[in-house]
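queue> pop job 88
queue> type: inverse folding (structure -> sequence)
queue> payload:
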């Protein structure tokens, strides 16, 4: 029996959470980027950690075979410190394939790799709808005859080569790159439709970029340097020490991995800086494998440590969500109650010291944080629902007379006037004033001597909907304003969660003291089981001898513009490549 739910509770203060940034890395987060956080790891002196495609969502990983190529090995000589040469990124080469910085590649020759743009995809080809291969190359259907087709490879609309193919035959097309011929497209001519408007269906399509990357020993990628490029692997090591101190934002591998360290301790939360033309992502958690051939039940558990899309509080070091899978002996389905999603609220204090004197019900001295589908919410209580936490930070900002601060959900804060040490602040909702107050910092305020507080009743509960600490009045050169900090803003639109409600395949069975969902009926597990509205569970099987191993992994789909991902197809074609196949490959 493989028991995947043995979890180690880390009690020391040296942790790090990482994320893979696939394309674009910058010092500050990119607007619209999607966060991909990995496991929490110990970065204290003497620790040794290996990150790879099984536990890192941004490394290449095939969700149909479990294949991965990349790994990052970190050795810490001191707390948060890696000596030069003690961080190693390795990309192994298997049967002419590899992965490099989160993408799948074909190896043309030692040190020369090209991106695998499409892995085992499908594509229809018809006259006037050519297959653009990039860099001036395209595949053109010249004609069909019964069950055969004439397909031509062109560059800049000039014929390169043409092939007459029979239905069911395999094909490949080569291009000359730097004086050498390489395969840039291969697949199978699956079907031919000989009609007035002929169409052919291509399957098992592998397309390779015509712009390969040359990798030589000594090449530098940020602070890493290539130390080996053979027919077995590509290896990079850090050429300078890596230091991670509280409050730091550290790029480990340029264009791949970032670390963000907490302000007060050696913990960090990293986020994805990815921003592509194709804005479609499948972000997975750690893969866990069970042996379904023995006579013992199996279980798998994922928390924020093993599934980075679940909510995690970096500064306070806690998570609330948990996904559990329990399987009976040799069954090929999930029994009733075998799939569980639960989230337990955790009370956190207000950052604003004056708000700690706020004494209303669920918000007395602080509020209860609860993760739901990976997002941060405030828990209102049994059958009262959740409200999104739109803003809660300790960052300061200045707001000047006549200026408005966008708070989200149609709310803004405006300085209507300043007189001596008094400031007139107005909270607006869709440009209509809903609350005004005059604050004299250090003397008088809605709460204490500095805090503006706007309350609103939500589901019968008084909620401190918006509060902010007015630090002082700013005056000078004809311009006046105020210095603000500790903004806290809750949504006024609750998410209703009641016993009996269904989310995805699960039903709410408990709302207090925690929210718990279970499956009420047996479920078949496969490549995509919708657990909740956002969380999915994927799986694939591998048989070795008499053993049948099943690998499970949770994932979330983040798709911003799927229309730009998939090529146009006809209704009769075998399904076009999935987002996963296009972006992750097989």
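queue> result:
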């Amino acid at each position: 029996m493989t028991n995947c739910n043995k979890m180690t509770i880390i009690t020391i203060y040296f942790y790090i959470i990482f994320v893979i940034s696939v394309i674009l890395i910058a010092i500050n987060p990119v607007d619209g980027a999607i966060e991909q956080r990995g496991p929490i790891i110990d970065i204290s002196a003497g620790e040794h950690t290996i990150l790879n495609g099984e536990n890192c969502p941004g490394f290449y990983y095939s969700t149909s075979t479990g294949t991965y190529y990349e790994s990052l090995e970190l050795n810490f000589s001191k707390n948060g410190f890696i000596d030069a040469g003690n961080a190693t990124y390795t990309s192994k080469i298997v049967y002419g394939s590899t992965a490099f910085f989160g993408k799948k590649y074909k190896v043309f020759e030692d040190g020369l790799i090209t991106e695998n743009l499409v892995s085992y995809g499908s594509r229809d080809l018809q006259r006037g709808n050519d297959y653009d291969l990039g860099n001036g190359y395209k595949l053109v259907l010249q004609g069909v005859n019964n069950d055969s087709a004439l397909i031509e490879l062109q560059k800049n609309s000039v014929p390169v080569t043409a092939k007459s193919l029979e239905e069911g035959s395999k094909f490949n097309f080569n291009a000359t790159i730097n004086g050498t011929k390489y395969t840039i497209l291969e697949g199978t001519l699956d079907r031919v439709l000989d009609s007035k408007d002929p169409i052919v269906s291509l399957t098992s399509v592998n397309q390779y970029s015509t712009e390969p990357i040359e990798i030589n020993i000594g090449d530098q990628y940020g602070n890493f340097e290539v130390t080996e490029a053979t027919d077995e692997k590509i290896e990079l090591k850090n050429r300078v020490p890596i230091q991670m101190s509280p409050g730091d934002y550290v790029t480990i591998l340029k264009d791949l991995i970032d670390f963000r360290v907490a302000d007060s301790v050696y913990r960090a939360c990293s986020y994805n800086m990815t921003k592509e033309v194709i804005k479609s992502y499948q972000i997975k958690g750690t893969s866990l494998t069970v042996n379904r051939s023995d006579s013992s039940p199996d279980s798998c558990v994922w928390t924020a440590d093993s599934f980075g899309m679940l909510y995690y509080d970096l500064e306070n070091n806690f998570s609330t969500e948990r996904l559990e899978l329990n399987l009976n002996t040799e069954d090929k389905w999930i029994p009733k109650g075998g799939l569980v999603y639960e989230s337990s609220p955790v009370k956190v204090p207000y950052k604003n010291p004056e708000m700690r004197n706020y004494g209303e019900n669920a918000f007395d001295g602080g509020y209860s944080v609860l993760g739901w589908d990976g997002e941060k919410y405030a828990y209102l209580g049994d059958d009262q629902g959740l409200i999104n936490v739109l803003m809660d930070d300790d960052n300061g900002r200045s707001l000047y007379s006549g200026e408005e601060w966008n708070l989200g959900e149609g709310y803004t804060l405006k300085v209507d006037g300043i007189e001596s040490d008094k400031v007139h602040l107005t909270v607006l909702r869709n440009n209509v004033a809903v609350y005004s107050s005059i604050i004299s910092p250090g003397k008088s305020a809605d709460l204490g001597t500095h805090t503006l507080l706007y309350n609103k009743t939500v589901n019968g509960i008084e909620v401190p909907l918006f509060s902010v600490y007015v630090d002082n009045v700013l005056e000078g050169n004809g311009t006046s304003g105020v210095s603000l900090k500790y903004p806290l803003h809750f949504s006024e639109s609750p998410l209703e969660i009641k016993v009996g409600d269904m989310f995805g395949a699960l039903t709410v069975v408990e709302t207090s003291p925690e929210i718990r969902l279970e499956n009420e009926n047996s479920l078949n597990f496969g490549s995509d089981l919708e657990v909740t509205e956002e969380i999915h569970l994927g799986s694939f099987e591998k048989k070795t001898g008499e053993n049948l191993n099943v690998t499970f992994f949770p994932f979330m789909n983040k798709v911003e513009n799927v229309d730009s991902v998939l090529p146009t197809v006809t209704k009769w074609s075998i399904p076009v490549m999935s987002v996963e196949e296009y972006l992750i490959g097989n």
